[in-house]
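Bumping with the actual sequence this time:
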Amino acid sequence: MTYFHQVPLKPLLAFSLLVGAIGILFHPAVAQMSSLPTSTSMTSHNHETLAHARMLFEEQRLDESLTVLENFIEETTNSTLLDEFYFLQADILIQSQHVSEAIIVLEQLIEEFPVSSLVHEARFALSNLLSSLEQYEQAIAVLKTLVNRAPNSEIRQKGLHHLRQVYDKTGNYLEAVYVMVENMELVDEQQREPLRDDIQGLVLQQLGERDLVQVKAKFPASFPGGLACIRLIELYMAASDEVMAEQAIRSFLARFPSHPYSQTARALLQSLIAKIKTHDNVIAVVLPFSGPLKPFGHDSFNGVRLALEEEKHVLGFQDVALVVKDSSAPSSTQFRSQFSHMLDEFQPLAVIGPLLTHEVQLIADLADSARVSTITPSATISDVRQFGRFLFSTALTPSLQVEKIVEYAMDTLGFRRFCTLFPRTASGQAFSQAFQQKVVARGGEMIVMESYKHGSTDLGPQITHLKTRDLGLYGELTPLPLKDGEIREVYTPGFDAVFLPTDPVEVAFITAQLAFYDINVPILGNNGWNQPDLLRWGDETLEGSIFSAGVFLQSPDPQVRDFVHRYHERFDATPSLFAVQAYDAMRLILDTLRLGAASSHDVRAQLFVRHDLPALSGLTSFGHGGVLDRKVFLIQIDKKKFKQIN
């Protein structure tokens, strides 16, 4: 039997009505309606408070206004007007000379309200305050952010204008030029003219050679690049630097053939060419002054210039002129034609360049026909004479590097057995083959030569094969009892060293992998290691490793240290290997003139037979293949530092 509990009707109805009322009360629409009078009242109160604070501020009752604002900000956590309160607070603090506090408030406004309509004005105010405190780097950072995030061109123009003013204060006129050029793109033609005048004033009156070169590179075929070229021509002509003047004129004419100044430039060029031809001793320099190899050509030319300037100063060589040609021709045929024309027109005593192996091969017969000694400062050919009797090289070749490091490893360290891990690149294969030849020629033994794809991060298969090969010859596995009773076999390599001809990144992870496979032997390397990043990327497994280098800037050798200092003083830069090799090439040629060479035949005769040629690293000579027997620095990694050991 089922029983029903009978509840009186009236109490049940009352309960239902109560539940319904609560539901209605908490329904979103009703809740919003119920809060509307309170929200409106609060908003009205906020506006009144802000208006009151502004009135006090306008009456210059700054402390009272600040108190009103601070109380409101302290008590309020959620107000749509809070950014306006912050902005007014910062304004009052600025008027009260409380700059540091104003900066804090503005930074807080920018951080908390990144999409506020006041954020751009806040950044303007913040940058002005930072600039007034001479915190220019911070001011520039704020303005750059403002320019990048500007919602319209008007604010961006204003930001660029402020940015230019800060750059003027810091004397960074190069960046001032850049922002004004950017600003020119945002304004109409009428506003553009004053900006052009300002830019012209800075370029002609404030920028030095280094900045002008950068403007020329940034605007190769537009304003103010042409103006920078003209100013460079004027500077070089005033300094009687005929070489750089000629180069600047040729660059200008190639970029701006229709410029109003082009007629003047052509006349200057003809005058310079005629002047060069009056010199008894003309040396040609053929290097890349444009295109992707331009930085290497630039470094090489700096080395040439430094050598010439020093010799003129010390020995009084005034009757030496340089003729400079850009080797970056669009085709091999055009390059040969230009080279041949240069030889015919100027009849130089010698040529320095070109840089690349295939370029040397292209002009070898032309040099032979003209009987002009041509010294490449960088083509890494172990035997340049195979291409021409008048070819020489001051380059650091793979053969030369390997010869010196193998000689040290076998004669000084007593090593006899070696392995090589090399990348499958032209350079890696050249170094590996040269290393094998030098080791075998000295009676040593190559255990294994393993190649890998350049850029690989896992050399496990190659190292395993190397280890297996060695265990079949001289390597040993020694049982080592462990505490838990197990036996671990410890591998002892049967070879003395591993040669790694690669870059610092690969050296770092390969040496770590070798250690993982218990290959704890000295590592040998090439000039590719000669970078500070090697010490940053490598770990303790590199300790004691040795590599060859064409130049070691921290060398204790007085001649090297003096050269590095002079180069830095002259060009405000650190010399590269390209600069060193070109410097040597120029010094050798000038030294033949010092000892009486009066013709191209005389220059070659001295370069061919002398054993006292003055290279940076000491007296030396050219070998049978025409390559300078230059000193190769041997560098050891000792306590996370590079240390010269020869």
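The tokens above came from a reply further down the thread. Confidence is low (pLDDT under 50) at residues 1-38.
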